[in-house]
Amino acid sequence: MTQRSVPFLDLKPDAFGLSPSLSTDIALLDRALGTVLEQQADTRLIEVARRLYAEDGDADPTALADRMPELRDPVFVQRLLRAYTLLFQLINAAEQKEIVRVNRKR
What we know:
Blueprint: H1 20-39, H2 43-54, H3 61-67, H4 74-105
């Protein structure tokens, strides 16, 4: 059975001037997290996370909750926050790996 890779937020780190190796790692981790969440039947979580990621940073919380009723469910929000937290931890680990790589290169 072939495993399909599903990104969590579909990040495009290479668009932000990161090194190619760090960009590759971040994109890989984004896909890995998305695949795990999809395997756990959390496609709705992925959809809401992507919509939030695409939102304007100044969006009114009440308006967000109106557009995304899932945000009114505390259990759903807790799972969403855990997914975002895990992604941030993975990205931090990738950044630490990149620092080690750059220091070794010097």
